[in-house]
């Protein structure tokens, strides 16, 4: 069956958007397309979409022409209405996400996390081993003086699906098989928790290839792989990943202010030397920087 456009062109955040399908039986690939819309879309846009997982292909897109971006999802055809809903929410909140990314608009992490935790607490099918808070938000919950840019959740295979059900009205990408440039092929979903004008991007995934999971990986989808500790948020105990994960990522990005703040949190908690050494060995940091970062937190 040929590619069919099922929505668009639609406007949002300086882009022209389309939603298309390629169907092979019940296996359906849905694609979000976004093209620089110029003045027709109140553009030009403030920044590129790779920060949100979109891919800029080397050649022109079938929809969108030469200045296009896309995101693809393998989702059952019966879920078409749900995909339409996530597509529309994505373009409605895209301006806010771009403002947060490129204009330093404040991200209201605390109310977004409160909404997520409240919904999880009401889900009898989601157990404590099915999810945790990771990334920079985990370091923030452990006392690091940083402002997280988004909310990353670790999840089990069951947890990925339950989180998507609990946050269904906030989804900006459908639950399904997709490609995350930083993680490969995953079962995943993304949400924007809050209003169109004020909210936080939330994402979670599990890899589809268990053999690709490295020891101590933060986002393995398997219980007991990531190193976790307990934190308290609004009088609720929750599991969070250790701050060494966020520390090494911040160093790789050259975010030195953030590195110093997270390092304070690592020292206060007490460094997990085994974990830190593994993360540093896997990192892209030069040897001298790895050694200096290790010395900054290991007493």
General description of the model:
With 299 residues, the chain is of the alpha+beta class. The chain has a domain at 4-102. The chain is 33% helix and 30% strand. The chain is built from 8 helices and 11 strands. The protein has helices at 80-102, 109-121, 135-141, 157-166, 243-252, 256-269, 273-282, 287-297, and strands spanning 4-12, 15-24, 27-36, 68-76, 131-134, 151-155, 171-180, 184-194, 199-207, 228-233, 236-241. It has a 9-stranded mixed beta sheet. The chain has a two-stranded antiparallel sheet with strand order 10-11. Strand 2 and strand 3 form a beta hairpin. Helix 5 (243-252) runs antiparallel to helix 6. The longest helix is centred in the first third of the chain and has 23 residues, at 80-102. The chain starts with a strand and ends with a helix. The relative contact order is 0.11. The model has no long low-confidence stretch (mean pLDDT 93).
Q: Main sheet: which strands, in order across?
A: 1-2-3-4-7-8-9-6-5
Mean pLDDT: 93
Number of strands: 11
Described by the principal axes of the CA atoms, the overall outline is globular
Measured as a percent range, the helix fraction is 25-40%
Characterize the main sheet: 9 strands, mixed
Distance between the termini: 62 Å
